[in-house]
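Hi everyone, sorry if this is the wrong subforum. Our group has a chain we'd like a structural model of before ordering constructs, and none of us has done structure prediction before. Sequence below.
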Amino acid sequence: MLACSGGPDSVALASVLDRVAREDGFDVHVAHINHGLRESAWQDECVVLSVAARLGRLVTTQTVAPDGDDEAALRDVRYAALTAIAQSKSANTIATAHTAEDQTETVLLALFRGTGLDGLAGIAPSRPLAGDVRLVRPFLRATHAELMAELRRCALPYAIDPSNAALRYRRNALRAALGGLRDEFPQLDRAVARCAQIVRDELSDPERAIARRELRERLRAHGDLRDIPFERIEAVLDANPEARVFVKPGLTFDAGDIRGS
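Answer:
Right subforum, don't worry. Here is the predicted structure as C-alpha cells:
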C-alpha cells in the first residue's frame, strides 16, 4: 500500500511504484489521510484521487481529525489510520516517500536535542507497525531533486502544502536554515544519510559494521581509501560472497573474504 499525501515526493513514489508493480506483477493500493487542519487539505485529497485515477489504482481516503496539530501526534494518528486501512485491504506493507532531506532534518533535530546513537541513526528504512504490517521507506537515499525529475517524466499532478513554510514547526525552521548550507555543500544530504546508515549498522548489524571497518583498514593500509566512495565499499559488502567486486581501476576484492564467508 502507498501512503500518498498528494505532495510531490509521494506522487513521485506513486509513479515509481506503479511502474515497478506493472513490471513485477504486484498490486498497489493508494491511501490518503486527511487531517482537515486547513482548507487546502481537501485540494490535496482531490490531487490524490486524480493521481490514483490516472494510474488506474484503487484508492482509500479517510478523514482523521486529531487533537491539535503537534507533529508527533499527527504522525501517530496517521500511521494508525494507515495501518487499519492496510489490514482491511490485506496489505502487509505501507510505503512512504521519506527522502534524504527528511533524513538530514531528522538526524540534525535529534543532534540538537543531545541525542545518543539511536537518534543519530535517523529514520529507519523499515520498521514494524501493528500486526504483520510493516512500514517501508524506499526513497531515503533519494533527493527531492531526483523525485522532481520523476514528476517531470510522469507529468502527474501534485499539491504544495502551505504549512511547510510555517516556521513555528521546528522541522520547517531547520529546513529553511539548511537551504543556504545545501547550496554550499551539495552532497550534504547524501553525507548525512551515509552517516545515519553507518550508525544504524553499528547498532543493528554489527557483522556488517565490523566488515566495513576491516575493508576500510585494508584500503587505508594500501593508501587507497581517500579516493574510494562509500558506495563502492557498500557494493563489496552487498555482493554475492563468491563475487569479485571492482572497487577502482586495478583494485578488486573477493566479497566472501570481507564478510567472513
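For your construct planning: Residues 164 and 172 are 6 Å apart (CA to CA). The longest strand covers residues 30-34.
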